[in-house]
Amino acid sequence: MSTISEIVLASNNAGKITELNHLLAECGIRVVPQSAFDIPDAEETGLSFVENAILKARHAARIANRPALADDSGLCVDALKGAPGIYSARYAGEHGNDAANNAKLLQALEGQPRSARTARFLCVLALVRHADDPVPIICQGEWRGEILTQPAGDNGFGYDPLFWVPERQCASAQLSKEEKSALSHRGQALKKLLAELSASHSA
């Protein structure tokens, strides 16, 4: 692990790339988006966040021929048996249509009391040193909250306007970027990954 100086991110999300570059710079690691290697998105055929994260990381590592990092994340609502789960981004049928996804979620929970609207955001990060790495580094973060009955706030994306954060008494979409990074599922997973990489780099 101590030889890693560059990681391919199995995503073209500009926000994720900027955030990861900032965080991993202290470990002496540069993050490059998969678009730099003309890597198409992997088919997410796994049945769990872990499977999909590993699948995406291996796909990017194989084509770029270098270490790769992928994340798979989503919202799990207890009353809906964990849905939308791994299908969070395409819950309403069209990938990345936040408005449609939020509308479908509100409809699915219509009439449910607050006590039945508990939910959690999950994020799994998977880092492979090479495409056939038998021991990927896997870091998971979880963020617990509730689903509101109507959207609130203009920050963030996805289900943020509907996700009530008990410790801040507001919606995720009402948090600043800094607050969200400190609390969120992805922020927690990234802290664990940084700890793993820092330990391996100093070993």
Brief summary of the model shown:
The protein is 31% helix and 22% strand.
Structure, explained:
The structure is a single chain. The protein is of the alpha/beta class and 203 residues long. The protein is 31% helix and 22% strand. The chain contains five helices and seven strands; from the N terminus they run E-H-E-H-E-H-E-E-E-E-H-H. It has helices at 14-24, 49-64, 98-108, 177-183, 185-202, and strands at 6-9, 30-33, 68-77, 118-128, 137-147, 163-165, 170-171. The chain has a seven-stranded mixed beta sheet with strand order 2-1-3-4-5-6-7. Helix 4 (177-183) packs across helix 5. The N and C termini lie close together (9 Å).
Chain-wise SSE layout:
Blueprint (H helix, E strand, L loop, with lengths): L5 E4 L4 H11 L5 E4 L15 H16 L3 E10 L20 H11 L9 E11 L8 E11 L15 E3 L4 E2 L5 H7 L1 H18 L1
Parallel strand pairs: 1-2, 1-3
Antiparallel strand pairs: 3-4, 4-5, 5-6, 6-7
Question: What strand order characterises the main sheet?
Answer: 2-1-3-4-5-6-7
SSE class: alpha/beta
Could you say which overall geometry the principal axes of the C-alpha atoms support?
globular
How many β-strands, per DSSP?
7
**Ends apart, CA distance between termini:** 9 Å
N-to-C SSE string, H for helix and E for strand: EHEHEHEEEEHH
Major sheet summary line = 7 strands, mixed
Taking all residues together, what is the mean pLDDT? 91
As residue ranges, the low-confidence spans are none
Strand residues, percent: 15-25%
Number of helices: 5
Rg measurement, Å: 17 Å
Which bin fits the share of residues in helices? 25-40%
